[in-house]
Amino acid sequence: MTTTETNTDPEALEPVVDPNAVSIVINGRQVTARKGDLIIKAAEDNGEYIPRFCYHERMSPVGMCRMCLVEVDTGRGPQLMPSCMFAVSPDMKVMTNSPIAKAAQEGVIELLLANHPLDCPVCDKGGECPLQDQSVSHGPGESRYIEEKRHFEKPIPISELVFLDRERCILCDRCTRFADEVAGDALIHFTHRGNLTQINTFPGEPFASYFSGNTVQICPVGALTAKSYRFKARPWDLEQAESTCTTCSVGCRITVQSSRDELVRYQGVDSDPVNWGWLCDRGRFNFESVGSGDRLTVPLVLTSSGHEPTSWNSALGSAARLIKDAITAGGANSIAVLGGARGTNEDAFAWARLAHDVIGTPNVSAQLADGLPIGLLALNRATIDEAASAATVILIAPDLKEELPVLYLRLRDAAEKHRSRIIEFTPKASGISRYAWRTVFYEPGTQAGAVATALGQADIAEQIAKGTVVIVAGRANLAESSAPTVAALLALTEALPQATVLPALRRGNVVGATQVGLRPGRGGLASLGILDAAASGKIECLILLGADPLGDVPDADLARRALAGARRIISIDTFLTGSSALADVVLPAAAYAEKSGTTTNLEGRVTRVAQKVTVAGTARPDWMIATELAQRLGAGLGFRSDSDITAAITEHVGGFEGVTAAVLDANPNGVIALAPNIDAINEPMVTLGDRNAYDYRLIVSRKLYDKAIVTTKSPSLAPLAGTSAVYVNPLDVTRIGSAVGAEVKVSSARATVILPLATDPSVQRGTAWVPFNQPGANIGELIDAAASVTDVRIESL
Amino acid sequence: MSRLNEDNVRIALETIARYPKARSAMIPLLHLAQQQDGYVTNEAMAHIGELVGATSAEVFGTATFYEMFKFKPVGKYLINICATMSCALMGAEQLMHHAERRLGIKAGATTPDGLFTLEHAECQAACTEAPTLQANYRYRFHVTPATFDALIDDLANGRLDAEIPPHGTVARIRQRIPADRVVGPRSPDDVTTAPEWMAVAPTASGGGQ
After folding, report:
1. Is B93 found in the same domain as B149?
2. Which of A535, A697, A743, B22 is spaced 20 to 30 Å from B73 by Cα?
């Protein structure tokens, strides 16, 4: 075949054919679609909008509403087809607005409006309603129906957060499909038949899904409305800005919407690498806390008669003086900065500069003794997409449904669509256990051994050999130190050197804050070390950057001793929390949506956060406070705006070189920045106590709704926090000699608390689970941060 | 009122085992619940959800689709009087008025003694025999006020117990498949390969058997 080798005539070369391209004709225009695309999507991608109600790109098509009927000719003559149910085929001819297609679409609108009430003027959806819009664009303009419309009681609450108006419902199956397919909480369903068909919950069993707010957003009519938004604003009055949610570290893209300078709603934005448009209810509805009347609006200084409001000038002066006095009294090392995970990258960078360069202390940490050592961030990082497409996902992490809900949705989707198999190591069943290929239960403290045993099993080894492996790593149990988890993680990374790691650290910008510098300097103390030093009187001045150790540090006694032992406390916070109430100076901070900047999610993805409303009172963003304090300490940081700092981060922080303002503007989904100069994680010491001394090994983990200040100050979410209880295996109840619901005495070596007894079959025998930070007795009293695990005795009263 | 009792749980588990997917047994179990209590209780629906791995809402959604599952207490005998065209022409309306007077209740209600529930029904597919009714889904044809009264008397006095069991009874003899004769069906999810070719013996005419 020498001819082909010598043939250089370009005309003779075969053109490269994209095997996934399908050529179709839409409205007489030849276009190229992707193989497997539905007609409705192919048309939209090529600029022809086909009206729809039930079709949603992130859910499977059902052909329920018939709105997307178009004429399609596949060579057998034109026929009406629901374009959301058929994939494109070569040379298919699609007519989206032929007379027959238009007549069909108008007919569907007329039928839908036969029962849909025309209460648009008082409907929350009016103005942004697909039914309203498409009645105008694709409807007949008038109706032949004169009959009475069907009536239901309206609206009925189907959960604490969502109301249902069945008269407005067009039965498109979006909310029910979401609940079943996406969230896995099929708590709403079509019920009854024919003209009485309706969406409803089981009698007395509410739609208590962590993701219920999404159904409000995807409802194509005003049938589902959110309690927090009902009658608050009209869509045409809303102002909005695209931003990133910083409630947890998944970093879902959202639009922040306000009316009259007040936040009224967050809507999920479909960010392909992150949240696919979904949000958890905690993230969606905690905007209420921003406008709370309890916000700190003026600086406070502690006087002999308690906290007194003062001017920023005097408060900053006092704060600077406290810092100077501390340096004089104990040197720069006697100052510590705790927190910063709630702010932007800019806030964190300014504070890192202030702490490390101006004050000169290495004792800086963005964590609160409840995460993992920051060396976790030095491991080969995975993205969410990589995790959700890996052949095997290994979880040695907290319950993702409770702590990182949208990451749970992505991994659940990966397992349900058979892309990934999940191997979960956990002390008790988590939200994702239902979808895990293998769930390995371990007794707290012994996870490294559980990992080693599992890796030695033939079927698990075979599964891991099938392809890429992503490890999701975080702290599953607050009643044990980070050491056992680190040991298990290192066992995994040593056995699987090709595996990448997705850090499951939960606080909004903890990864970003750590990467831009809010981390211990050389010889500096991490969060636990800072608390220990403060408790033993070695900290002259403790700066709490939005941190509430009393609420968040698992070891309650340590937190209390640390705040009592620190000579002076400066708190920068949005609310007067238990910890900031003890501070000598409290500086009111701007909250989310009151300041702009950038944030970094657990992947290292940097995205923009936007300011939408004016700050509460005289509150200021953290970075501005850092700049002012630096000035008063005699060294200007030179930042006049958050964009100055964004530029400085690009210039000075390793890994952020490419993250310029222009790049962020061009990539609303963000760009990945990984800090390369974080020290590797060290092999920890795990010491397990004598198991015979106490009966039960304690598991303490977080729930989505707890006493966190932002939840407490959001009226919609506050009632959702449960109550504290100690959960044991049902078979252990008789052994305790008590009954479910009765109060029992739970004692560790350190303290005793009284909690009601409850059962959970997923709690292994010999262990006990207590949710953290719930209303009721504080389980933190029992936790000793210095011990590897916590053993408790449970006795009936 | 009540979840499935112990005997019925045993039957439920046997039933579930016959299907490749547990939730396929949902409707047979709803019948079982209706047989137990005369109607399907909320507690039974929640129990069925637990047994087949569905949420209560999914069981409720499925159950309420079907006209013959009742969700409120029903009399021992459910009398359905057809009201569709042929029966209407042949005097169904008068028959209903008579029935209401005879039983002392309106259509849709149950007699205070809990014996009879009276309901309108759509076409019972026996137009040549109009007007028709069903007592616990057993037909009565060419019903007149007199034959209606006779039927009510017979039911009340137990003279028809052999023919018409109480409402909810699916079958008086339950099919039991011994464990060794259960097919052991595979879940469609577990089927990843094409079915095996079946050997077909050629016949004299050359075609397959």
Report:
1. yes
2. B22
* Per-residue tokens: A694: 């106490």
Task: For tokens 């029962």, name the residue.
Answer: A115
Q: Which distant-in-sequence residues (6+ apart) come within 8 Å of A462 by Cβ?
A: none
Q: Which CATH architecture has domain A374-503?
A: 3-Layer(aba) Sandwich (3.40)
Letter string b/e over residues A374-385, b meaning 16 or more CB atoms within 10 A of that residue's CB: bebbbbebbbbe
**A180: closest CA of chain B, how far (Å):** 10
pLDDT band at A2 (very low <50, low <70, confident <90, very high): very low
Identify the CA nearest to A780 among candidates A368, A339, A282.
A368
In whole angstroms, give the CA distance from residue A787 to residue A474: 18
Whether the CB of B164 is below 8 Å from some CB of chain A: the reply is: no
Count of residues for chain A? Answer: 797
Question: Which of A191, A198, A199, A200 should we substitute to test contact with B (largest number of B Cβ atoms within 10 Å)?
Answer: A191
Q: Tell me, what's the pLDDT at A308?
A: 96
Q: Is the pLDDT of residue A765 over 70?
A: yes
Architecture of domain A696-796: Beta Barrel (2.40)
Q: Which residue of B39, B40, B43, B56 to mutate against A (max A Cβ within 10 Å)?
A: B56
A196: closest chain B residue by CA: B65
In 3-state terms chain A splits into helix, strand, coil percentages (rounded to 5) of 30, 20, 50
Give CA–CA dist A40/A43, Å, rounded.
Answer: 5
User: Residue A135 pLDDT more than 60?
Assistant: yes
**What is chain A's mean pLDDT, rounded?**
94
Residue A526 has what DSSP assignment?
-
Alpha-carbon distance of A425 to A488, in angstroms, equals 10
Asked whether the predicted pLDDT for residue A9 surpasses 70, the reply is: no
Q: What is the pLDDT of residues B135-194, one digit of tens each?
A: 999 999 999 999 999 999 999 999 999 999 999 998 888 888 777 887 777 777 788 888
Shared domain for B67 and B123, answered yes or no, is: no
Across A105-143, b (16+ Cβ under 10 Å) vs e yields: beebbbebbebbbeebeebbbbeebbbbebbeebbbeee
Whether residue B64 lies inside any domain: the answer is yes
Q: Which residues of B touch A190 (CB under 8 A)?
A: 61, 65
Contact A620/A314 with Cβ under 8 angstroms? Answer: no
Q: Which residues of A touch B45 (CB under 8 A)?
A: 202
Domain A150-231 belongs in CATH node 3.40.50.10700:
no
Which among A761, A764, A779 is positioned nearest to A426, based on CA atoms?
A764
A625-663: per-residue pLDDT in tens? 999 999 999 998 999 999 999 999 999 999 999 999 999
- A727 strand-pairing partners: A758, A769
pLDDT the model gives residue B209:
43
Residue-by-residue DSSP string for A129-142: -HHHHHHHHHS-SS
Full DSSP string of A5-45: HH---GGGSPPPPPTTEEEEEETTEEEEEETT-BHHHHHHH
Residue A776, sorted as left (phi over 0), alpha (psi -120 to 50) or beta, turns out to be left
Decide if A201 and B55 are in contact by the 8 Å CB cutoff.
Answer: no
Size of interface A-B (CB pairs under 8 A): 42
The reply to whether residue A192 touches residue B65, judged by beta carbons under 8 angstroms, is yes
CATH code, A21-111: 3.10.20.740
Q: What ipTM does the predicted assembly reach?
A: 0.90
Q: What percent of chain A has pLDDT over 90?
A: 92
